[in-house]
Design goal:
Layout (H helix, E strand, L loop, with lengths): L2 H6 L12 H29 L13 H6 L3 H12 L3 H15 L2
Helix pairs in contact: 4-5
Amino acid sequence: MPPARLHRSLSPSGSLAGMEDLELHRRLDAVLQQVGRLEQKVDFLFRHLGLEFVDDRPPPNDVEGLLVAGDVVGAVKLFQRKHGVHLLDAKRAVEEIKAKLGV
């Protein structure tokens, strides 16, 4: 589904609120199928061009890895433990790291 069609499939307010569960599941399934097809195409291109994908993201057992994985609370707790700082200081530091990572 082209991005324009996906955007138009949202409610007039631009959100998914108010949609029935069945409709949400149908649309989510369609998006997941599209992502699967895109992954297949990217895999084909990598093979065709002789390229290898290298995931250089940090492992999820460090602050950056937890942030990439979407675990902000875990990142704050880990930062606080590793650096022995107060919760608010850890939260501020993690927010700065998060902004630098662009996640």
